[in-house]
């Protein structure tokens, strides 16, 4: 039986059992409970993936599955930073991932909760996520796991691959913005860079594993974790660190581009203000003279003088030249 996406009761999206290193076999909730109650060989486990937007999912998990209380605490606490903790011999992980249709929107970063014990791997999410769906498809295609921790390691590796692609796509966008900046086109570059920087900052803040919890786990792992799986977990976290470092370097590059764009915009603004100032200063003498001579009162000088116009014009030109000379001197200074 191949369960359809999101069609199972109690929020189950998919379920698979892994026995003897063979590919996963699809099962439903009833079959999963029977499997967990029966005899199990070392390394065999069942994977259940739930949709928490179904109100019955959490209640069913609490009632029927041997899940540590720390898992439910992680579901409802405010902090969603990526971490892996040892909870009385089981592993509780909070993994942040991107939405399936990710479009560089900070709001499209969601959380996946994971509970891993020797014979049970439980994952739960509120919205469709790219990494877990990639892993689900790989399991349907015949991917095998030697243990439940190997499943968690594969999940972390897949998430690292998704993050690498995001950083690579962001780098391409930054390269494009930089090329347009060199060409002198500044239409939407500041907005694009701001969006990219917000996404990278949130990715770095949420995806970087908490070093304290990870250090404690690697130093004192549960007794059922073998050394090979522990080395794979250490490698997965090191890959995360490298990708987070690349994201931090890209943030610094974006910041420098934003500063360069701000400097160019400020220079253009200064040029515009200077041009407006020059025009205002040059027009000031003629506006003053026109205002004085245009008053409808008696005693306007040179009103009867045949050379009056040329005298006034000479005065206006003289003061305009003086104003232009003063403005140019101020600019040179």
TrEMBL record:
Membrane topology designation: Multi-pass membrane protein
Subcellular compartments: Cell membrane
Record field: transmembrane: 273-295, 307-327
Keyword Transport: yes
InterPro entries reported in the protein's UniProt record: CorA_cytoplasmic_dom, CorA_TM1_TM2, MgTranspt_CorA/ZnTranspt_ZntB
UniProt keyword Protein biosynthesis, yes or no: no
Keywords linked to the UniProt accession: Cell inner membrane, Cell membrane, Coiled coil, Ion transport, Membrane, Transmembrane, Transmembrane helix, Transport, Zinc
Predominant subcellular localization, coarse grouping: membrane
Coiled-coil ranges from the UniProt annotation: 233-267
Family in the record: Belongs to the CorA metal ion transporter (MIT) (TC 1.A.35) family.
Protein name, as recorded: Transporter
């Amino acid at each position: 039986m191949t369960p359809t996406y999101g069609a199972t009761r109690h929020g189950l999206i998919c379920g698979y059992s892994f026995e003897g290193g063979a590919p996963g076999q699809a099962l439903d909730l009833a079959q999963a409970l029977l499997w967990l109650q029966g005899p199990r060989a070392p390394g065999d486990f069942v994977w259940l993936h739930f949709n928490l937007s179904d109100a019955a999912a959490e209640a069913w998990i609490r009632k029927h599955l041997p899940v540590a209380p720390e898992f439910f605490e992680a579901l409802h606490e405010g902090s969603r930073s990526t971490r892996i903790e040892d909870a009385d011999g089981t592993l509780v992980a909070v993994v942040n991932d991107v939405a399936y249709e990710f479009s560089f929107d900070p709001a499209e970063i969601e959380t996946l909760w994971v509970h891993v014990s020797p014979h049970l791997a439980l994952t739960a999410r509120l919205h469709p996520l790219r990494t877990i769906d990639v892993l689900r498809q790989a399991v349907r295609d015949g991917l095998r796991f030697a243990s439940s921790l190997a499943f968690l390691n594969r999940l972390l590796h897949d998430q690292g691959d998704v993050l690498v692609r995001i950083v690579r796509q962001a780098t391409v966008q930054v390269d494009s913005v930089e090329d347009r900046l060199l060409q002198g086109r500044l239409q939407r570059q500041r907005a694009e860079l701001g969006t990219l920087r917000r996404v990278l900052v949130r990715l770095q803040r949420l995806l970087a594993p908490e070093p304290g919890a990870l250090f404690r786990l690697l130093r004192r792992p549960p007794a059922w974790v073998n050394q090979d799986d522990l080395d794979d977990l250490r490698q997965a976290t090191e890959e995360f660190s490298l990708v987070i470092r690349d994201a931090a370097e890209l943030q610094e590059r974006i910041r420098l581009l934003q500063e360069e764009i701000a400097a160019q915009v400020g220079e253009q603004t200064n040029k515009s203000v200077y041009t407006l100032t020059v025009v205002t200063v040059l027009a000031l003498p003629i506006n003053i003279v026109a205002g004085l001579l245009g008053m409808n009162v008696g005693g306007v000088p040179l009103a009867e003088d045949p050379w009056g116009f040329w005298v006034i014009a000479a005065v206006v030109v003289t003061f305009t030249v003086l104003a232009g000379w003063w403005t140019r001197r101020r600019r040179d200074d």
